[in-house]
Amino acid sequence: MKKKLLFLLFILFFISSCSLKNAFLSDEKIVSQQGPPKIEGMIFIPGGTFKMGSNKKKNEYPIHSVKISGFYMDKHEVTVGKYHQFCIATRRKMPNQPKWNNDNHPIINITWYDAQAYAKWSGKRLPTEAEWEYAARGNNRSFYYTHGNSSHRGKNYGNIADESFHQIKAQFPVVEKYYDGYVYTAPVESYPANIFGLHDMEGNVLEWCSDWYSSKYYKASPNIDPKGPAKGRYKIMRGASWNRGFRYLRATFRTWYPQKASYEFLGFRCARDSSISIK
Question: Which domain holds residue 140?
């Protein structure tokens, strides 16, 4: 009887000790154990280190190691419908949209200033160039394309300049024998997501990033969460678009436009900081 009583006391002491230990864990520690909190329409991108850049083009090298903290990224590009809600709420003029661009298609004719304003209004921000490439390349796997190291010839992975594009640009170079189902933009999430669950990282529209552009930035870039040069003339854009072919499909491809530029192939998605970083 005495042995049973001692055993019961030991069990009670062990349970109470565990409860007391958990009570003193910080909220962030508990959240980390449970996983990152979910944010509607966004994907948590766990932090990690990857090789940024390539030897394919002068402004893409040198290849360098970059460490990225965990952050959130929109699952898909901001749509016409979502941006219209922003315009109504802020009494901002809605940019003209062609007839073929519907509410569930990515918003286009957007300047960098427009994208920045929407991001701020929604409690988010524009992704950095490094975050964008890290998310597109699949963490430390460093894929050259968003689905691996193949250019997916003949596969339906994105909305790019396919054979149907010749309907509007007869002599324009396209991806031969490829049909993505749309001449112009496609509804978001029309194609398979990448390894993180992000859609259209290599198609539909080019996406504004927060960084200033510099062709020589990689030579002096910090190796932890780089945010681009302190100043510049142009803003970085990443990804491919419905009127661009294979040359733009590399996740490492860098292009740039003036902040006031707005075209039918320019859009954006947002990012958001995270208080935790799962490696």
Answer: 38-273
